[in-house]
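User: Can you recover a sequence for this backbone? Please restate the input before giving your answer.

Assistant: Of course. Working from this structure:
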């Protein structure tokens, strides 16, 4: 005899299972100040390898602050240590480093030519090859360049696949209200695949080929990075509209869950 279960019971079971999952990292930005037990600042203004124009500052609320339950990363036009712009870049390195998981960041992005916000990940150590980048890899959960509004990028870089040699792997999705509404930018990382989503819609997958670390170095601890760059080789390739500043990226929350069970590949 075959048994048939109602669809609503199946959905309820999934919902309860998801609700019982515990975060391995969580910041709801509900306090008065940035939680420095979870985040550190990257600072400086030497171009960050991309000829960027900003100076990333530390403990300066003009650039990084908590406001109405949101993290604000703000880029401003002002002279600061030989740079014409200031901004913020925060990282979990040394405070939360992890291997595999589901990352969810609910954020609203800035608009304007010359802005370059990013939600991304880098390796927390050197495990492969001779160089930190690209040998250790890079996972870009969300990038948006202001001269190309509404186009959100999800990208993976490795020694074999990176933009310097024109082989990087990635895709884009159109989000027309990127600067007016919050969206959930998500990445699922398992030993077999990296998948990118916006509001649960998958638009990019990078499978593990199991050939070499040059293609898949993503089996070692990584950390999260949130930043808002100004200009740079990509973000500033069409110039910078200096009339738009100050501009901000707002983040409602950052949550990391254990890696999801690997299911059949959703259709793109």
């Amino acid at each position: 005899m075959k048994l048939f279960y109602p669809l609503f019971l199946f959905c309820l079971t999934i919902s309860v299972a998801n609700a019982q999952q515990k975060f391995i990292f969580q910041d709801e930005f509900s306090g008065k100040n940035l939680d420095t037990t979870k985040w550190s600042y990257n600072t400086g203004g030497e171009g960050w390898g991309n000829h960027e124009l900003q100076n990333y500052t530390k403990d300066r609320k003009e650039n990084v602050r908590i406001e109405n339950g949101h993290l604000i990363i703000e880029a401003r036009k002002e002279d600061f240590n030989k740079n014409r712009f200031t901004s913020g870049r925060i990282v979990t390195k040394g405070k939360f480093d992890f291997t595999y998981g589901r990352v969810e960041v609910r954020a609203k992005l800035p608009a304007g030519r010359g802005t370059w916000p990013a939600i991304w990940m880098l390796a927390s150590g050197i495990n492969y090859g001779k160089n930190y980048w690209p040998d250790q890899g890079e996972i870009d959960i969300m990038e948006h360049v202001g001269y190309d509004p509404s186009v959100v990028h999800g990208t993976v870089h490795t020694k074999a696949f990176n933009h310097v040699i024109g082989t990087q792997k990635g895709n884009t999705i159109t989000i027309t209200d990127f600067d007016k509404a919050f969206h959930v930018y998500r990445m699922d990382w398992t030993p077999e695949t990296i998948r990118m989503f916006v509001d649960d819609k998958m638009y990019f997958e990078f499978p593990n080929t199991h050939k070499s670390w040059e293609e898949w170095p993503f089996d070692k601890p990584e950390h999260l990075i949130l930043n808002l760059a100004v200009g740079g080789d990509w973000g500033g390739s069409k110039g910078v509209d200096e009339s738009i500043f100050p501009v901000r990226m707002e983040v409602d929350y950052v949550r990391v869950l254990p890696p999801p069970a690997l299911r059949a590949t959703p259709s793109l």
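That completes the design. The first helix runs from residue 7 to 20.
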